[in-house]
Design a protein that fits this description.
The protein has about 100 residues and is mainly alpha-helical. The chain is built from four helices and two strands, in the order E-E-H-H-H-H. A two-stranded antiparallel sheet has the order 1-2.
């Protein structure tokens, strides 16, 4: 499992795409993990920070304000998530093939 550090308002947080972040997403939204809307994307971004950073302390309103102030943060999130999902897909493919390359 890889993580990625991201700086929001001068503080470094760690994003972690994992089971915990997906479960936090489902707890917050009350629906299965699915990133079909912009709201889903931002909630998942936030839950990855919550999953990756102990004693996060970043409130959701503060998080959204930071996203408005620095749209490049969403690009960092998108790139990290894309890479993480590609690694998951590659792992799943290897598992289906019995671990053969």
């Amino acid at each position: 499992m890889t993580t990625k550090d991201i700086t929001i308002d001068g503080k470094v947080y760690t994003m972690k795409h994992c089971v915990r972040s997906r479960m936090l997403f489902e707890t917050i939204t009350g629906k299965m993990w699915n990133l079909s809307t912009l709201t889903d994307q931002y909630v998942y971004f936030y839950t990855m920070i919550m999953a990756g950073t102990k004693d996060c302390g970043l409130q959701y309103d503060e998080f959204l304000d930071a996203m408005d102030a620095d749209p490049s943060l969403f690009v960092e999130y998108s790139n990290y998530l894309h890479d993480s999902l590609e690694r998951e897909a590659a792992f799943s493919k290897k598992s289906e093939e019995g671990g053969k390359n």
